[in-house]
Design goal:
Site (Role in the phospholipid gating): 179
Main location: membrane
Pfam families: PagP
Order of helices and strands: HHEHEEEEEEE
GO molecular function: acyltransferase activity
Helix content: 25-40%
Radius of gyration: 17 Å
Number of strands: 8
Number of helices: 3
Shape: globular
Subunit structure: Homodimer.
Oligomer: single chain
Strand content: 35-45%
């Protein structure tokens, strides 16, 4: 019970710090519609936090550096097996969409530990008569930290996509970047229990 509460606290702290950073920027430079979006985001995070929980186990599966945007000598040195694990709490809203809070740690491209925590949302479709099969598209917002950046927390906003059946979901994102930097496909399994 203590570990679960500690994980929730760490995830919430990461989310709130990145949300505060984004909110202060938004207030200074962006219109009221963005402020409304942050309010909705905050409401969704709070509701996911306090809802009766589904717990999720995250198992990183693959990291792939886009070969068209990297020198071969770089990709030959990179780790593309992101060993690690994570834990989360999620809910399905009344529209059938997925909301999740998570904390995950995995081996990054340099084979160093990288933590990431945040909130994810996916619009979910169930295209077959079988309600267990689902597809999702959405986003995640949170924070990460990397060894090569001295573990300074870095806010992240990334796209999400998924395909799943029942409690097992293959979820993925793409980290954009420049030549020899970023442009990474990252995917993991999420098991709901």
């Amino acid at each position: 019970m203590f570990v679960s509460k500690l994980i929730k606290f760490l995830v919430l702290a990461g989310i709130l710090s990145s949300q505060l950073l984004f909110a202060s920027f938004a207030k200074a430079t962006i219109s009221a519609s963005v402020s409304d979006a942050f309010s909705t985001l905050g409401d969704n995070i709070a509701q996911t936090w306090s809802s009766p929980a589904h717990y999720d186990l995250y198992v990183p599966a693959i990291t792939w550096h886009a070969r068209f945007d990297y020198d071969k000598e770089k990709t030959d040195k990179y780790n593309e097996r992101p060993w690690g694990a994570g834990f989360g709490q999620s809910r399905w809203d009344d529209k059938g969409n997925w909301h999740g809070l998570y904390l995950m740690a995995f081996k990054d491209s340099f084979n160093k530990w990288e933590p990431i925590g945040g909130y994810g949302w996916e619009k979910t479709w169930r295209p077959l008569a079988d309600d267990k099969f689902h597809l999702g598209l959405g986003y995640t917002v949170g924070a990460t930290a990397r060894d090569n950046w001295n573990y300074i927390p870095i806010p992240v906003v990334l796209p999400l996509a998924s395909i799943g059946y029942g409690p097992a979901t293959f979820q993925m994102t793409y980290i954009p970047g420049t030549y020899n930097n970023g442009n990474v496909y990252f995917a993991w399994m999420r098991f709901q229990f």
